[in-house]
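Quarterly update from the structural biology core.
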Amino acid sequence: MIDPNELVQSFLAASEFAVVGASTHREKYGNKVLRCYMQHGHDVTPVNPGEDEVEGLVCAGSLTELARPTASVSIITPPRVTLAVVEEAAAVGYQRLWMQPGAESAEAVARAAELGLDVIHSGPCLLVVLGYRD
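Predicted structure, tokenized:
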């Protein structure tokens, strides 16, 4: 098993990031995580099938629209949706996932492990690790 700190460092070493569950509502974590990446100068794409644009960035409807498996994927979705995101990420070829607190489910975590994905879960929030200012 990989050390959790090593997983975080590997995740953050990506050149691109995707935020599944990005939101236009600034008080929601899906928006805050997106803005945190932006504040730190990272190349980030919001992903939400219900939005065209979030924080001035063109929003993808799904990870399959991006087809950039070099990206690390932050997941800020309800747990019932997270499993589908894991399946989609694996199908496209993404390797690194970070289930933000509240997005994880035991089923999604287990499935990610079965698929051989590197997954951060049940731990730190990206906002704390990178440092976020509202």
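The chain has a mean pLDDT of 94.
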